C-alpha cells in the first residue's frame, strides 16, 4: 500500500494541502476491501496525531474520522473498533478544538456492526467527563447526543449495571439544550430512556432538567422547512414528564405553579399535563393536593371581576375536573371529600338560576358527575333537589328561568343515563324529576316549545326514568306532535321516539306506530306524509321493526287502488334506507330475495303510472341492484333486459333501474348496439324532459363501460355519424347527446373522446347551436352524483383541459361569448394546480370572461379569480389595471347577488397586496365602493364594508412611519 504522502511530509500535507481529505478516498476503499489494516493507517497518521500543535492534531484526527464515516458498518472487526475507541477516548482528553472530530469519530464507531459492549462504558465516560456537550456547536451536540442514545438503546444491560452514574451523565449532557430540533429529538427518546433505566434518587433531578422547558414557549420561523411547532414540542415534553409514576409525582406541584401564569398556552399545557399525570399516580399521592388543585381550577373557572373565560380554557378546566374526580373515585372517601369541597364552592350559584355563574357552576358539577358512577349518583342526589326546589317555588318564576332549570335537570339525568346508574338513585327523586317532564308533555298538546324540547330530550336520554303508567302520556304527546302539520321541528320528538322504541319495543309498536300508520294519510298535506315516512324509514334500521315497516311501505307502493302521492314517498323512504350502509345486507336479503321487489315492479308497472312514480321506482331499483353480487346482476340482466322496448316509457324506466348501477364486469355485448340506438332515437324525438335525461345518463354510463374492440368502436362511429347528420339539421338535442357520450368516454380515457370534444368545440362558432355547445362543455366538466361511471381514469379532467386549450388557445382574440362560457365551465372543473401552472394562458381568458353579460360565465370565472387573488399570484399583480375596474363594475351588477359578493371579496384580498401596487387605484376604489354600501342585500353590504375598510387603510402604515 502506497500512501499519498510520506512519513516526513504528512504534517506538511495537513498544513498546506486543502484537498488532503480527497486523497484519502482510495485509503477508504483499500480498508473496505481488506487490503489495508486500519491500525496501519493510524500509524501513518502518527506524526500528525502526536504533533505539538493542536491544529495539526485536530486535522489528523479529522482525517481519520472522515475515513471511518465513509467505511461500511460491517467493515471493521471488534478488535479494530476497540483499538479505535481507546484512541478516541484518549484524544478526548486533548484540547477543546479536537472535541468535534472526536465526537464524530465515536459516533461513527458506535454505529459499527461489531462495536463491542465492553467499549460502551469507556466511550460514555469520555463523552460525559472529558467533553462538555454544551460547549459544542449544534451539529456536534447532535452527534454527541445521538451517540449516547444509540448506546443506551443497544447496550441496556451493560449500562444498567453501571447504575446511577450513567443516568447522571445523561442528565448532564442534555441539561440546558435550547435548539428546538435537538429538543424534539431528545423529547422523542427520553420517555423510553426514563422507563428503561431506574432513576432512583435522580428522578427529581431528571424531572427538573426537563421541567425547565415547561411550558413550551416557542414561535417557529415561518420560513423554516422543518415542521417543528409549539404543539409538537409541548406534546413530546409532556410524554417525558409523565413517562413514569416517579416522574409524574413531581408534575402536580409544578403545574399548580404554572396555572397561575398569564399565558393561555401555559394554562392549557398545565391542565393537559394534569390529565396525563393522574393515571400514573395513586389516589394518596394526589389527595394531599386536592385543595390546591381545586382552588387553581376555581380561579380559572370563576375569574375575579367577572372577566370572561376563554372557551378553550373553560373546556380544559372542565376536562381536568372530570379527570380529577375519575382518579379520586378509586377511593370513594377521597372522592366524597373532593366533591364536597367543589359543591361548597358552587352551591351559592346553583341555588339561584338567575346568577351569572349558574351555567358555569352547572357545567362544573356535570363534569364531576362524569367522573364515575359514584360521582354521578352523589352529584344527582345533591343537585336535583336544589333545581326542583327552585322550579316548584311558591313565588313566581319567569319562563326563561324555568327553561334554564329544566335544562339543568335534563343534563343531570343524562349524566346518570351515561353511567347507567339511574337505578341506584333515590326512587322518590327520580319520580319527581320524571313527573316534571311528563307534566310538560301532558299539557303541551301538539305544540313544540323550548320546555317540550327539553322534556323530550330528557326522556330520549333516560327513558328508563319514566314510570310505566306515565309512558303512555309520552306516547300520546309524541303521536300528537308527529301528526301536527303545523309543527315544523320534530327532530327532538323523533329522537325521543327512537330511544323509547329501543327499550320498549312492543309498547311503541302497538301504541305509537299503529296510530301513525293507521292515520288517514290520503287527506293530509304532503309535508306531513314525508315527515312520517322519514320517521318510518329510521325504524327500518332497527331490529324488530324492519318487517313491519317494509310491509307497510310496500303496501303503499303496490296499493290497489294506488295513491301515487303516498307510493312515491314510500319508495323514496325505502331508497334512503337501502342507501344507508347499516342496511346494506338487509336491502339485498329483504327487498330483493324475500320481497322480490324487482320482479314485483316488472309485473306491476303500466302506462297509467306517472313519470314521478316511475322515476322513484328506478331509483329504488338502482339502490337494491347495486348491492347484488356480480353473478346475481348477470342473472337479472339476462332475465329482464331482452324483453324491454325502450320506446315505451315504462320500459325505459325499468331499464334505467336495471342498468343504472351495474358492475363494470357484467357483460352487455348482446344488447349494447340496440340499447344505444334506441336511447339515441328516443332522446332525439321525445318532448319529455325527464325521459330525455334518463336517456342521456344511460348513454353516458353505457359508453363509459363499452368494451374497447372493433365491433363497439364501429357502433360508436355509426352513432356519431347519425348525430352529425342531425347537427346539420340544427337539432339541439344532438349536441346534448354528443356531450353525454363524450363525458362517458372522457372519464375512462378513451382515445375517441378527443374527436368528440373537437366536434363540440367547432360548434361554438355555429350561429344556432353555439349556445347549446357551450352548455355541452358544462356537461363534460361537471360531476353528477347520481351518474354511475364504472370506469374512471385518473387525470381525465386535466386531459379535457388540455384538449380544449389546444383547440382554442390560438383564437383568443376572436372568442365569442359561447367560447368563453365553454372555457369557464372547463376551468371550473380543472384542478386549481393545473390552472396555476397554465396561468399565463388561462389568465387573459378569465379577464375576458369577467366582461361578459352572461352571469353564469362571470360567476364561474370570478370563483377562479377569487382563489388566485387570495394566493397573490404574480399574474394578478401584473394585471391589476384591468382586473380592479372589472371587479368594481361587477360589484354593482344587479342581475346577480353572488357576482357582487365575489367581486367584493376579490377586492378585499387585493387590498392586502403591496402598497405601491395599490396606491394608484385607491381613490377610485374608495369612491366606487360607496355604491355597494347601499345595496339592497345585507350580505353585499357586509362584503362592501369589509372591502372598503381595508382599502381605506391602504398606505396608512407607511404614512405613520414617515411621520
Describe the structure.
This protein has 963 residues and is mostly helical. Helices cover 69% and strands 0% of the residues. The chain is built from 54 helices and no strands. Helix 41 (732-748) runs antiparallel to helix 42. The model has no long low-confidence stretch (mean pLDDT 88).
In short:
With 963 residues, the protein is mostly helical. Helix content is 69%, strand content 0%.
Q: Helix and strand layout, with pairings?
A:
Layout lengths: L9 H7 L8 H8 L5 H7 L1 H4 L4 H17 L7 H14 L7 H12 L9 H11 L7 H17 L1 H7 L1 H11 L5 H17 L6 H9 L18 H12 L3 H4 L2 H8 L5 H14 L5 H5 L2 H12 L9 H18 L3 H19 L7 H12 L3 H19 L7 H20 L8 H18 L5 H12 L6 H15 L8 H13 L1 H14 L7 H15 L5 H12 L6 H16 L4 H11 L2 H8 L6 H15 L4 H11 L8 H11 L12 H14 L3 H16 L5 H19 L3 H17 L4 H10 L7 H12 L14 H13 L8 H13 L2 H6 L1 H11 L5 H16 L3 H5 L1 H11 L6 H14 L4 H14 L9 H15 L3 H7 L1
